[in-house]
Write a structure and sequence with these properties.
The chain has about 270 residues and is α/β, with parallel strands linked by helices. It is about 35% helix and about 20% strand. The protein is built from 8 helices and 9 strands.
Length: about 270
């Protein structure tokens, strides 16, 4: 096999670790590998986590997060950055400051709760997400629970998704993806910059093993941006990738299993 000489685009994830491997840093790096970019990581927190939930979480010191970020960005460089679990106001503000000084698109997944309902962001950090983190985002990707945390809006239909998008855009991101996967019917997401609207629809697969969908979508969008796609193209490609990963999700342990990040290359049958 010939040696590869071209350097792939580099994408940095700033997020927490999921010891079960379905979400967080682990899901991000698997997604990036599957989509043809070089994944790098800044670890913000460690969780004890499995298919049943989060049994514990420990955030890293601000200095450790800053040192990891500078180590990667100053030497290797990045073509896109994705953020996930940031845990505390201090970490949110530190990461926002670092991102503001980095010339690369940023995908912010404003992680607030886990798939099982476990809190992953301190309540007092929400103001910092609104005032510091979302303004540096190229794309923000809240799910409906996170929309409620950030805006107070409880979305029950597509018109509510449009209203929520306007509220999130008011905090400063260039684009927002309101993820409507918790609504009945088709799995629908709304991508908008306040003028153009893109409704992204996919069939709903009857599979409960969906751990890691949010991390995976945000990382797939960041990968597309690093590959030179515009935002709508990157988000549509990410939606297609995540839909396939959900369809191929598999059971692990006694609870909710992960999506299959390797479904594109998994043998059929």
């Amino acid at each position: 096999m010939p040696l590869r000489t071209a350097i792939p685009p580099r994408v940095l994830t700033v997020a927490g670790s999921d010891s079960g491997g379905g979400a967080g840093i682990q899901a991000d790096l698997k997604t990036m590998l599957a989509l043809g970019v070089h994944g790098m990581s800044v670890l913000t927190a460690v969780t004890a986590q499995n298919s049943l939930g989060v049994q514990g979480a420990w955030e890293l010191p601000v200095d450790a997060v800053r040192a990891q970020y500078r180590s990667v960005v100053d030497d290797i460089g990045v073509q896109a950055v994705k953020t996930g679990m940031l845990a505390s106001a201090a970490l949110v503000e530190t990461v926002a400051e670092l991102l503001a000084g980095t010339d690369a698109p940023v995908v912010v997944d404003p992680v607030g709760v886990s798939k099982h309902g476990d809190a992953l962001l301190a309540a007092e950090a929400l103001d910092s997400v609104r005032s510091a983190l979302l303004p540096v985002a190229t794309v923000a990707t809240p799910n409906l629970d996170e929309v409620t945390q950030l805006t107070g809006i409880r979305v029950t239909d597509e018109s509510g998704m449009r209203r929520a998008a306007g509220q999130i855009l008011g905090f400063g991101p260039r684009w927002v993806v309101i993820k409507g996967g918790h609504l009945p019917g088709e799995a629908v997401d709304l991508l908008t910059d306040g003028s153009a609207e893109h409704w992204l629809r996919a069939p709903r697969h009857d599979n409960r093993h969906t751990h890691g969908t949010g991390c995976t979508l945000a990382s797939a969008i960041a990968s597309g941006l690093a590959l030179g796609m515009d935002v709508p193209t990157a988000v549509q490609g990410a939606k297609t990738y995540v839909t396939g990963a959900i369809e191929a999700g598999f059971p692990l342990g006694g609870g909710i299993g992960p999506v299959d990040h390797g479904w594109l290359t998994r043998p059929v049958g």
